[in-house]
Write a structure and sequence with these properties.
alpha+beta
Length: 108
C-alpha cells in the first residue's frame, strides 16, 4: 500500500512539473559583458498552435513579436533582451494557445 501511495505522489509530481515548465519562460538574458543602453520595455500577445508548443518555438515567436513592437516605438540599431513570457489562455477546440511576452529594448 505504501509503494502505491509513493508511486502516485511521484506521478503527480512529474505531471505538475511538466505542466508548469510550459507555462512560463525566460529568454535572452542580458550579461554583464553586454554594453547596451536600455531604452525601455515592450509587451505583446501572440498565438501558437498547440502542436508547435515547444519552448524553442515559443521563445522565437516571443522574440519576433517583441522586436516588431520595439521597432514601432524605437529607432536605430535596437534589440530585445530579458524576455519573459507566460501562457495567457487557449482555444482548445482549435488547439491554439495565446501567450503574453514582455522584454527590455536595448540599443546595441
Amino acid at each position: 500500500m505504501k509503494n502505491k501511495s509513493l508511486l502516485g505522489c511521484l506521478v503527480l509530481l512529474v505531471l505538475v512539473v511538466s505542466l508548469f515548465s510550459c507555462t512560463t519562460g525566460q529568454y535572452m538574458a542580458m550579461r554583464r559583458s553586454d554594453n547596451a543602453e536600455i531604452l525601455g520595455t515592450v509587451s505583446t500577445d501572440f498565438t501558437i498552435t498547440g502542436s508547435f508548443r515547444y519552448r524553442k518555438v515559443i521563445n522565437t515567436q516571443a522574440y519576433i513579436h517583441l522586436l516588431t513592437e520595439a521597432k514601432k516605438e524605437y529607432q536605430g540599431n535596437i534589440d530585445v533582451r530579458e524576455i519573459s513570457w507566460a501562457i495567457g489562455g487557449g482555444d482548445t477546440s482549435n488547439n491554439n494557445y495565446q501567450y503574453n511576452a514582455i522584454g527590455t529594448v536595448v540599443r546595441k
